[in-house]
Amino acid sequence: MQSIHTDIFITGGGPAGTAAALCLLTHTTCKVVVAEASAYDNVRVGEHVDASIFRLLEYLDIPRNTFDGTGIQEGYNSEAAWGSDRLVSRHSIYTTEGRSYQLDRHLFDSFLAAQVAARGGQLFPRTRALHYQHNADGRWTILLQHETKGQFEVHAKFLMDATGRQAKVCRHLGIPGKKYDQLTGIGAYLQSDTTPTPEQKILLETTAEGWWYYATMPGNRMVATFFTDSDLVKQHLWQQPDNWNRLLASTKHLLPLIRGSHAYGKPWVRNAFTQMTDTSTIKNFLAAGDAALSFDPISSMGIGFAISSACHAALAADQQLQGNAAGIISYHKDLRQHFQQYLQVKASFYRKEQRWKTAPFWIRRTERVSDTASVDPGS
């Protein structure tokens, strides 16, 4: 069986995993191996980000003009009907100003992966980790399965989980994540049947049962996702096409945007819960991005946090390998502080919607408003 020896092994080749690898390859002398289960050919929902994304990319030695015309496009129209049925600028929901941008996740993720390989990292797509062995000396032996080339091993000094909200490595190692809600997204991709390209737009719209996210995508496509709680989905069977379409038909602002289009495939269901995973008890191991902290999509903190936390984790891992644990300690402290701030910001978003105080979805968010200040994510 083939064996590869490296300093740091990263499971997950999305924005967090590739950002961690690029940080190590740019700012340290560490050798890096990344395994990604997909072939970077999955359709991904676009991400809404602000201009801070460019500062993060510049830290990884990726100039802003690299994405001119591809991957990152300025979002010219971003609106929300949140707290009333009147459309307002989405920035007023966040009480922030400045330009916003829409990521083409397929181009963005593929570009970062290509950068890892171009800078000397080893990235294996279509590769799953089958087993993680933590050796007595603190090092790791990882058994991997490539889709067509079979099994091989990686021997690493440090292991990082960048597998997203599912935190697959953490689960494999028996590290439970603490969930703070049961938010779930039920979405579908829509294809415009009209000749004109749909207006580039992002829209949020609340209903008694939850809230909708809509965005345009390349190729006359759109995505519409309904966010609610998983038990409500099961109770009302909202994942079924007819029921999902009825919810969509009840919207005021979203429905006109998707007229003249058709959905392809059944609605998909994805977890969107808030979660924190504490990895401080395992030596030479960290989680980054959604594997460490998973945020409610209303916060728009996903990609930016994935990249920034991955860079912090990468530098902490490098320090650990040099015999300095200060970076690891600082990383966990910052995660707890970041999560506490997020809970308060999340509560303020949901507090803005007061029209459905007796609806189960909104009752739960109102109840949690008073709880967030006392939550200790480190407990």
CATH fourth-tier homologous superfamily of the largest domain: FAD/NAD(P)-binding domain
Q: Structural class of the secondary elements?
A: alpha+beta
Strand fraction: 25-35%
Look up the CATH topology of the largest domain. FAD/NAD(P)-binding domain
Helix content: 25-40%
Helices, by number, come to 11
Radius of gyration: 21 Å
> How far is the first residue's CA from the last residue's CA?
42 Å
Low-confidence stretches: 369-379
Q: What's the shape?
A: globular
Number of strands: 20
Average pLDDT confidence is 88
Question: CATH top level of the largest domain?
Answer: Alpha Beta
Largest sheet: 7 strands, mixed
Under the CATH scheme, the architecture of the largest domain is 3-Layer(bba) Sandwich
Brief sketch in words of this structure:
It comes from Chitinophaga oryzae. The chain has helices at 15-27, 52-59, 91-94, 105-118, 168-172, 230-236, 241-249, 254-258, 302-321, 326-351, 360-369, and strands at residues 2-11, 32-35, 47-50, 72-74, 78-81, 88-89, 100-103, 122-124, 127-134, 140-146, 150-161, 177-179, 183-192, 202-207, 210-217, 221-229, 261-271, 275-277, 285-287, 293-294.
Topology record:
Elements: E1 2-11, H1 15-27, E2 32-35, E3 47-50, H2 52-59, E4 72-74, E5 78-81, E6 88-89, H3 91-94, E7 100-103, H4 105-118, E8 122-124, E9 127-134, E10 140-146, E11 150-161, H5 168-172, E12 177-179, E13 183-192, E14 202-207, E15 210-217, E16 221-229, H6 230-236, H7 241-249, H8 254-258, E17 261-271, E18 275-277, E19 285-287, E20 293-294, H9 302-321, H10 326-351, H11 360-369
Parallel strand pairs: 1-2, 1-11, 2-8, 5-14, 11-19
Antiparallel strand pairs: 3-7, 4-7, 5-6, 9-10, 10-11, 12-18, 13-16, 13-17, 14-15, 15-16, 18-20
